[in-house]
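Teaching note: in complex prediction, the entire set of molecules is handled at once rather than each chain in isolation. The prompt given to students was simply: 'Predict the structure of this complex.' The entities are:
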Amino acid sequence: MLTLLCSLLCTNQPNILLIMVDDLGWRDTSVRNGPPEDPTQAQLHTPHIQRLADEGMRLDQAYASACVCTPTRASLLTGAAPARHHITWWTLYHDRDTSGKHPTLRAPDWNKEGLQPSPDLLPERLRRAGYRTIHVGKAHWGAHGTPGSDPLQLGFDENIAGHGSGAPGSYRGIHRFKNAKSTTDFSKSSVWDVPGLEAYHDRDLFLTEALAIEASRSMEAAVASGEPFFLHFAPYAVHTPIMANPRWIDEAEGLAPVEARYVSLVRSVDAAVGVLLARLDELGMTNNTLVIFTSDNGAVSGYAGRPANRNAPLRGSKSSPYEGGHRVPLIARWPQHIPAGASSNAMVVTHDLHPTLLRWVGLDAEERSVPDGLDISSILLGQRDQLERFVVWHKPHRTGGQSGRFMPCTAIRMGDEKLIAWHTEQRFELYNLQKDPGEQNDLSKTHPERVGALSRVLADWCREAGAQMSVDQERGEPVPWFDAW
Amino acid sequence: MLTLLCSLLCTNQPNILLIMVDDLGWRDTSVRNGPPEDPTQAQLHTPHIQRLADEGMRLDQAYASACVCTPTRASLLTGAAPARHHITWWTLYHDRDTSGKHPTLRAPDWNKEGLQPSPDLLPERLRRAGYRTIHVGKAHWGAHGTPGSDPLQLGFDENIAGHGSGAPGSYRGIHRFKNAKSTTDFSKSSVWDVPGLEAYHDRDLFLTEALAIEASRSMEAAVASGEPFFLHFAPYAVHTPIMANPRWIDEAEGLAPVEARYVSLVRSVDAAVGVLLARLDELGMTNNTLVIFTSDNGAVSGYAGRPANRNAPLRGSKSSPYEGGHRVPLIARWPQHIPAGASSNAMVVTHDLHPTLLRWVGLDAEERSVPDGLDISSILLGQRDQLERFVVWHKPHRTGGQSGRFMPCTAIRMGDEKLIAWHTEQRFELYNLQKDPGEQNDLSKTHPERVGALSRVLADWCREAGAQMSVDQERGEPVPWFDAW
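The expected output is the structure of the full assembly:
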């Protein structure tokens, strides 16, 4: 069957458009993705993302590799879980630990440099397979001052507006995508200044609009030159600063100001998706392009001015081990291959995309091998409902700043069960996601045998992956593995 | 009526797409532009330029301001005839006279620096009127080493690939638009290297394709930001080097190699026009955009490997005072304003476009005043058939190199009559273009009274304009005015 699949898929290398939105929650589009209903979803209007869902497959149990940006993005490019690549937190400068301070623990010696050049990165592999590799928008793979801060060093032929920072100073061209407080004084530069895009400075253009125009241009050039393309479109939005796009803000009337601005950001992403899909249509490339739409972690909830229920019905926020931190939208469209209007409850994770894309590009098993990601082709083609697998999220960091309540932890989901292990107290929580998607009923006390079983799987996997545990400050030693708690 | 016209036209500033092709002859598209038929025109296939003609007005007696590039381009931006702005020849370095050597005459102290910054240039005026001003492609207004070599100094907000040179080293991305002889050695740089466009280097893209993609992007950004735009699209083609576009070369089977390559260049221009028109359609801007299609001088004929009849049925070549040197295609489309499928025999010239565009943009008489160009709105709107005017071409230069047979001269057309004044022998030729479009029957001997009348008009106008005559090397003095011959 594998041979058949390849002969079907690999005769003509498809283009790949991977839309990696930032901080977009599972319910942050108008696409309905399974019960229970969330009335606030009605505020969102994302017709272009809806089009993708109508023409492709919606994965309702899709996860980001991590609960913050850099680790997930590094997992996409490496095919490895963050516990293995040790980029377990977000990067900025090569020597700065962005973890928050904790009273008794500290972060391990994690990879603060972030992702660095390697021939095994996804864009390098795609480039070797003949692809034009294009990065547009937020990169945030490698720290400033390291080669990895430049997408051109990571296998991309083009880099538009990407560097070592994970947020824009401003979303507006009138601010030159820098300081949101001035349209005239640009004398001070900051690490948050979006690089490039000078042609859009001092103009009434939103960052998502500029990026969509640039990305369309790059797709058009690749098609004109006869190259298949891999476009990694990462629009910075809807990351903070939660700024209004003036073109959409009126649609969000009646909402609290921050929520109205957020809705306008989401709408901006949808409009950008619309521009890209329209360009594919115009170029005659819709049928020959695999489009993936996803996010790098769950929505911000309970800080940055946002209410605490922004991932409802899921619990938690970006930065937390609950479902709201990891569950993300994932839509895949490839006409005549992926069934239209389909949905799946298969558990998949960002780093699965790496081997899956490479398989569809026609690379053989060795060329597409990765440590952790699974080939989910059979799920996307509607041939299987579920994979035998578990997913681990490892976060040996306290979050800093406003979101400092998010403590070091590791979590595993296997089947319907989810075990969360809190490093500080060496304490577990256990949930049944099928019965309790909102993670309200901790079963750890009533089902100690399940805690034991899952904690052993988790510990074994973490040891094999070389995961770095939080360090006990007093003893100067790592917190013990989960099967010793 | 003027007020009515303005209230009709100026309520909503139209976008302006001015396509300034290079060296494209009057018959170098598949658009039929009046008798006599030319069988070689059947080799050309330019459906997108044809679409413009079908949807707009064809001007069959349109002239370039000069018989070579720089003077015509400077006339567009200044609204002045070359005799007045003294950029009477093509520029390269600020201190280099590119004129050919002549046994008895030399060029006057013409403006070898080329066009320099001024608030009265067309793009400056359009920018003041609220336009986003975009230059794409060949600039060739100011010499290298002067501010005018940079379109950003001439009123353009954006400059893509324009500088002080008038030809590309190569049309191909695999050559990085530099040396056409190598796809690997780029160590030597030259004044003919096309600046910018790095994203297209080492790729199978033709210069016209890259420029069309870039121009489309800039139009899209202007529309997204709500700015009306002025796009000056000058595709370098079909200037030498006469290189094949591999995508079209097979269509020219059976032609001599140079002609086949030339046809593929023309087809490349047409394809670029197609990309721009399609983008206007997609942006919903077709009805609100004035499109002008024209060329900066007649086709190369009798040198650069091309046969001597390439402007047939017209006589002469780029660089000569015969009709083949100046007559150019001119098509204007503005749906619901300019009648569709119309044609006109009004005598118009490149520098007319300057005040005409500014009038339609809504500028008042003072803001659009120019020394020589006439407002041809009434022609384009189908309200008048002809203007009371004459046109003068002044070329106090011998052409250099391969085309050294083109000698210093001045010419005037008034009504159907054309007088050519050769500076060397102080000798006239007179033609009746209505009866003799190919300028075969010199009437100067049989109609001395017409020679006298026209030479007086010519001399009066040249004196008023401050034209610089060729200089007699022996005497060190200018050749006398035409009414003293």
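Point out the following to students. The CA atoms of residues 277 and 286 of chain B lie 8 Å apart. Chain B is about 25% helix and 15% strand.
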